[in-house]
Amino acid sequence: MEDRAVYRLRDIIDAIDQIYLLLEGKTFADVQKDRILRAAFERFLEILSEASRHLPAELKAKAPETPWRRIGDIGNHLRHAYNRVDAEIGICMPMAISRN
To answer: Lowest CB count within 10 Å: 15, 76, 81, 83, which one?
Structure first.
């Protein structure tokens, strides 16, 4: 595996770990009302999203059950439609909290 892919995977794992710690015990309402919590959550989603976009296709093919396209798209949405993010946060929270 390329060194860059290893770095990207580390970034993804770290972002997931940080999201998990950040959201532990939190509800959707908690995230909505706390701007700093929300900003941190969104930033970790952006990191996860961007890192996923740079993984080689052959590596992604080894995990076909992972919604790679959706993961990549959420970063674009956070950057370009930042004023309409509430529903996406609600959708991403359960995905972010569930760890396999």
So the answer is: 83
